[in-house]
Amino acid sequence: MVSVTHPTTQAAAVARPGVSVPSLRFLGRDLTASIVVFLVAMPLCMGIAIASGVPAEKGLITGIIGGIVVGAIAGSPLQVSGPAAGLAVIVYELVRDQGIGALGPILILAGLVQFAAGVFRLGGWFKAISPAVVHGMLAGIGVLIVVGQFHVLFDHRPLPSGLQNLAAAPGRLFGLSSNLRATEFAFAIGVATILAMLGWEKFRPKAMRLLPGALVGVVVGTLLSLTLGVEVARVQVPDSIFGAIAPPSTSALATWLNPSILAAGVAIAFIASAETLLSAAAVDKMHDGVRTDYNKELRAQGVGNLLCGLAGALPMTGVIVRSSANVQAQAATRLSSMLHGVWILGFVAALPFVLTAIPMAALGAILVVTGVRLVSVKHATHLFRDYGVLPVLIWAATLATVVATDLLTGVLVGIGLTMLELVPHLRRLRLKVFEASDGDSHAITLDGTATFVTLPKLSETLDRVPAGTDVRIDASRLDAVDHTSAEMLRDWFQRRRATGAKVEITGARGRIATLADHRH
Fold first, then answer.
1. Closest-CA residue to 79 (of 268, 300, 368, 370)
2. How far apart are CA 252 and CA 233, in angstroms?
3. Residue 516 burial by CB count (10 A; 0-12/13-18/19+): exposed, middle or buried?
4. Which helix (H) or strand (E) holds 82?
5. Confidence of residue 155 (pLDDT cuts 50, 70, 90)
6. Which of 180, 178, 150, 155 is nearest to 165 (CA)?
7. Which residues on neighbouring strands pair with residue 445, listed in sequence order?
8. N or C: which terminal CB in the chain sees fewer CB atoms within 10 Å?
9. Torsion of CA 337, 340, 344, 350, to 10 degrees
10. Residues 93, 403 contacting (CB under 8 angstroms)
């Protein structure tokens, strides 16, 4: 438990730099950024839909809702929402086992759970999920995407499980196919897409740095397929995007009484929320503007997934690739995210025939690159360097369990192993936090043990410190810090120092002293 003593008189919070509402002053920046995000989002929306085992238009509908609706009400103004690679695996399994008609009821339920979590202010608890678990989950998802989409490069559907896909990969690579010539052409198009994407990202001229590599890869793959004039599988989209909207039937909604449907809805709500808030925290590190309101973001994601369920589309999360493109393109307000949804809607409504020229192998290639990038060995080495063996074991166990069984089991195994960090501190799990304002500075005293159990309240206390105010932290009575709290403190120190505010720590020892000295 955490007990917090608030100052009797506290200076009014200074408004953080940045802007969170659309303004004509920033229209030019937001307009440019929205086009960049649109170009990044289009191939990813379609590719993730195909990786999820549903038609490409389902991903486009989710992208439209994520931009126009969620962008308008999000708690993280510069974050972009849409279909996420992190949910492709679980959706694929749900569609395989329950049928595509089950997606609507599941997403409606997931949206309601997320909205309720935001209303009851549970957003802070998602910060308490160990970074080792989250990155292990993403790495496992990355492996599953790579081994699944590898088969799409040969114009074949992925097999039912990750282990089956992995076992079948060598045979596929060495040409054990019933239609060798067609698969060779498809594979050549996929490889050309990957090379074009990676080559562009490495060698693109500075003046064209905002043109996304994924788009260049898809264009090259499409032009190559048209030039060769070969028959390969291509994207199929309806003439009207509105015709792709498929509300769940009354009988489908009755499946809420099915325990497996209920479990799937809760699982998607949990995983989508964790991925969204992880992405939001990463976006906050990229700019000095308005910080994320986690509970508002949860409510917005709940509304978005509720609408996706009603439209029969894919689930959504906040997504880091599109969000980072938004920040790098110098977006200033939420208008950029909203406009990118408008551009997707306009494109698929006016030019659907352009999408039908895209080879499936090209989209599979984009997802292969995306999956490889999710497997962040760099994060595992960072965990080992700063926190020792246990967090790396949590990361590896989560990854392996996700690949061998399923996403939810992997996350639960990771969370279970995280509990081991509590064992040395069972006699003193409490953390007391005292605050006091002293002129132009803010004093915080920490007494006890900082673990993921106490992280939400500790995080709220730190985030309540007025922007630009110097902070003095007395850590002389802080006995220990687990790696989840240490990562949160590291990010907080970096954000404060980046704004020019002074952070002074006294009495620090062990891991907290190391954190205080980190500048990277």
1. 300
2. 31
3. middle
4. strand 80-82
5. confident
6. 150
7. 434, 474
8. C
9. 140
10. no
| Tokens, residue 68 | 């126009």
DSSP at 483: H
pLDDT digits (tens, 9 = 90+) for 482-499: 888 888 888 888 878 777
Query: 């910080």: which residue's tokens?
Result: 291
Distance CA 409, CA 391 (A): 18
**Closest to 275 (Cα-Cα) out of 321, 340, 335, 326:** 321
The reported pLDDT for the residue numbered 381 is 93
205: amino acid identity, one letter: P
The amino acid at 133: V
Whether 474 and 443 have beta carbons less than 8 Å apart is answered as yes
Strand partners, 434: 5, 445
Alpha carbons 435 and 458: distance in angstroms, whole number: 11
Task: Say what the pLDDT of residue 515 is.
Answer: 67
The tokens describing 326, both together, are 């938004």
The residue count for the chain: 520
Task: State which H helix or E strand residue 80 sits in.
Answer: strand 80-82
Helix (H) or strand (E) holding 317: strand 317-319
- Please report the pLDDT score of residue 23 as a whole number: 57
For residue 315 the two structure tokens come to: 């689930």
Neighbours of 364 (CB within 10 A): 31
Instruction: Round to whole Å and give the CA distance between 128 and 352.
Output: 43
Q: Rounded to whole angstroms, how far apart are CA atoms 304 and 309?
A: 9
Per-residue DSSP letter, 433? E
Residues whose CB falls within 8 Å of the CB of residue 488, separated by 6 or more in sequence, listed in order: 127, 455, 458, 459
Radius of gyration of the chain (CA): 24
Q: Per-residue confidence at 182, pLDDT binned at 50, 70, 90?
A: low
How is residue 503 annotated by DSSP?
A: E
Whether the model pTM is above 0.70: yes
Encoded tokens for 132: 């080792």
Q: Which residues contact 132 (CB under 8 A, 6 or more apart)?
A: 383, 391, 392, 394, 395, 398, 414, 418, 483
Structure confidence by residue, pLDDT tens digits, 287-303: 877 888 999 999 999 99
CB neighbour burial string for 70-79, b if at least 16 within 10 angstroms, e if fewer: bbeebbbbbb
What secondary structure letter does DSSP report for 258?
A: S
Give the residue among 450, 426, 428, 434 at the shortest CA–CA distance from 3: 434
DSSP one-letter string for 141-186: HHHHHHHHHHHHTTT-PPPSSHHHHHHHHHHHHTT--SSHHHHHHH
Backbone torsions φ then ψ of 404, nearest 5 degrees: -80, -30
* Tokens of residue 221, six digits: 């793959």
